[in-house]
Amino acid sequence: MNSFELTYRAMAAKTLPMQELAPRNRRPLRTWVTTAAMVIGGALTLGGCVSVTAPDKPIVIELNINIKQEVVYRLAADAANTIDKNPDVF
Amino acid sequence: MIRSNKPRNLRLAGLGGMTLGLILSAMPVAAQSANPAYAAARAAGQIGEQIDGYLGFPSSPSADVRRTAEDVNIKRRAIYAERASATHSTQEDYAFTTACRLILKTRPGEKYQAPDGSWHTRTAEAPLRDPKCAAADTAPN
Predict the structure, then answer these.
(1) Which of B10-24, B45-59, B84-98 has the lowest mean pLDDT?
(2) Model ipTM?
(3) Cβ pair A80:B101 closer than 8 A
(4) A58, A70, A7, A46: which is closest to B93 by C-alpha?
(5) What gap in Å lies between CA A69 and CA B136, rounded to an integer?
(6) For residue B107, which phi and psi values (nearest 5 degrees)?
(7) What is the pLDDT of residues B77-122, one digit of tens each?
(8) How far lies B38's CA from each of A84, A85, B31, B65, B120, in Å?
(9) Contacts of B94 in chain A (CB under 8 A)
């Protein structure tokens, strides 16, 4: 009985599920799908690439001029009034 | 000067009537009599309007001319400082804005400084000014 059991177990280990034949069949498929997805994904990434090149001229924001112009605009009336009120120095 | 003062004269005369008109017409006379040395040096082109709101010398000045201009510049600086604080601006900005008006107000024959710092004699044509000065002309009075 004991020997039979041992023999049976040894034989049972040789059955297909025990040898993981079914999972072995499934795993390569999953790996292939993953690989294909990665390849397609890589291709898509490369195809959808937007190439950005740095401008050869520096980006200059002419902010000071606008601010100054606004200041001049705001002060003009007061300045004109000051000139009229002080004719001996202007 | 002619272009900028005409509407002001017309409007003031219309608003204020005789009294204001009389004061306004008396002002140029007062300006000339208050400081004859300054008026003479201006007319002679010994003193010119700078772009920074102060008087400068297109040619090397005599001691008298230099004193006259420096005296006026000190008074101008005091006025700029007072108005700058009243308008919450800087003295430089206020002086620059005033210079825009002053250069436009120069009479033919008087000297003024162009944006590049060179001295020019005012003609009947518009003076050479900094582009930022355009804002001073369009500003509401």
Answers:
(1) B10-24
(2) 0.72
(3) yes
(4) A70
(5) 8
(6) -95, 150
(7) 999 999 999 999 999 999 999 999 999 999 999 999 999 999 999 9
(8) 17, 17, 10, 8, 19
(9) 75, 78-79
Chain B within 8 Å of A67 (Cβ-Cβ)?
Answer: no
Would you say residue A34 lies in a domain?
Answer: yes
Tokens 């003031």 -> residue: B12
A87–B27 C-beta distance less than 8 A: yes
- Find out whether B109 and B43 touch, Cβ atoms under 8 Å: yes
Residue in chain A nearest B78 by alpha carbon:
A89
Q: Is the distance from CB of B3 to CB of B136 less than 8 angstroms?
A: no
Question: Is residue A90 in some structural domain?
Answer: no
Q: Please report whether residue A15 resides in a domain.
A: yes
Q: Are the C-beta atoms of B102 and B49 separated by less than 8 Å?
A: yes
Cβ contacts (< 8 Å) between B135 and chain A: which residues? 69-70, 72-73, 76
Q: Do B138 and A73 touch (CB under 8 A)?
A: yes
Total structural domains in chain A? Answer: 1
Contacts of residue A83 in chain B, CB cutoff 8 Å?
98, 101-102, 105
**pLDDT beneath 50: ranges in chain A:** none
- The answer to whether A60 contacts chain B (CB < 8 Å) is no
Domain spans of chain B? 35-138
Rounded to 5 degrees, φ, ψ at B60 are -60, 125
| pLDDT of B141 | 58
